[in-house]
């Protein structure tokens, strides 16, 4: 709002809400009004949840995951297979893989991808941490679950180079047709990869 | 998330963020991660802005506006023309009119529209408050700035009936072509109204 008409505290709340991804200036106003209307049902619980999460959130010093404990729940879970580390770019990828629930492994969050154009080098990512986790022993496989983008693949190659000489298998996610996907809508690269990696039916 | 993997406090934050209009379950996760990554720049300021707004927000007992003082800034502003009251359905409409900045009047927020099907009757809206503001005297015009929907117009008629016998002029917003609008995309009702209310050029 150009003019402050709803009190400085509410204006400030709207301004900050507008910086949350998914909300813009207009939807931030709508969100603020909704919160004010649902003061007891939503505004108060959200405010205290936010304060509590803010106070308790930690970045796991082992794998880079976000949790309320350090090391995180996954790193300390004895039922997890510590011999397999799934390497992801971001915590959101870790969450996506956990929702898939296909592997009972541990993770390593890089915090991005190598991108010389954006000035992101190996030291800006959590790659050294990965190397020392492998060097400590007990890890037999590293699954590179990075995005299938140029930056993701560059990062994958760099990590593979770092693992040279260590006794660890480096694998990557399979390329292919997404489950439920229609061939007609897929790009040529994916179709070619799916054909190349065809499996017995 | 079906599985709690990021600590109960973060899960709870995601659940509550998902109930904010404009955010869904998926964007709530993305928003929570963004907040955690921008802990100092965004998460901490937003958390404190939220706590402060929650504590200080008031509904104006005169007009129903949302502010940090009661009566609100607009109701207590001596530069405002107290003889004109703009009646709106919702605080968001008040904010929209304030952004337009076309009138220096006061407001009255109904808190909705009459809607017998949804069980919203006159007593569920802030209509009595409007009648008593007019009855107190000093008000010469009421501008019905309700939405041009069936419910909005029903509410406008009801309020006009309540003002019968009082010394107050009741007006409504003009119908017509939106500024910058193209005729081709307008509905027949709007075009008919714009023709009927044509003005000298």
UniProtKB/TrEMBL annotation, chains A, B:
Role summary: May play a role in DNA repair. It seems to be involved in an RecBC-independent recombinational process of DNA repair. It may act with RecF and RecO.
PROSITE patterns in the cross-refs: RECR, TOPRIM
Family to which the UniProt record says this protein belongs: Belongs to the RecR family.
Gene designation: recR
Domain Toprim per the UniProt entry, residue ranges: 83-178
Keywords: DNA damage, DNA recombination, DNA repair, Metal-binding, Zinc, Zinc-finger
GO function term, MF aspect, one: zinc ion binding
Pfam families reported for this sequence: RecR_C, RecR_HhH, RecR_ZnF, Toprim_4
PANTHER family from the UniProt entry: RECOMBINATION PROTEIN RECR
GO biological process, alphabetically ordered: DNA recombination; DNA repair
Originating species: Nitratireductor indicus C115
Name the record gives this protein: Recombination protein RecR
Top-rank lineage group of the source organism: Bacteria
InterPro entries: DNA_Rcmb_RecR, Rcmb_RecR, Rcmb_RecR_Znf, TOPRIM_dom, TOPRIM_RecR
Positions of C4-type zinc fingers: 60-75
């Amino acid at each position: 709002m150009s003019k402050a008409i709803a009190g400085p505290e509410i204006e400030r709340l709207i301004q900050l809400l507008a910086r949350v991804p998914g909300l813009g200036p207009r939807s931030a106003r709508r969100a603020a009004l909704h919160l004010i209307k649902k003061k007891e049902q939503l505004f108060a619980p959200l405010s205290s949840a936010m304060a509590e999460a803010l106070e308790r959130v930690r970045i796991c010093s082992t794998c880079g995951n976000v949790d309320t404990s350090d090391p995180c729940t996954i790193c300390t879970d004895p039922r997890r297979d510590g011999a397999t580390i799934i390497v992801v770019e971001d915590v959101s990828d870790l969450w996506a893989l956990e929702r898939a629930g296909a592997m009972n492994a541990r993770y390593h969050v890089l915090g991005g991808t190598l991108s010389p154009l954006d000035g992101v080098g190996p030291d800006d990512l959590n790659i050294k941490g990965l190397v020392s986790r492998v060097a400590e022993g007990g890890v037999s496989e590293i699954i590179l679950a990075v995005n299938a983008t140029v930056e993701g693949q560059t990062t994958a190659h760099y990590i593979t180079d770092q693992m040279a000489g260590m006794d660890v298998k480096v694998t990557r996610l399979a390329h292919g047709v997404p489950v439920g996907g229609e061939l007609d809508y897929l790009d040529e690269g994916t179709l070619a990869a799916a054909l190349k990696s065809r499996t017995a039916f």
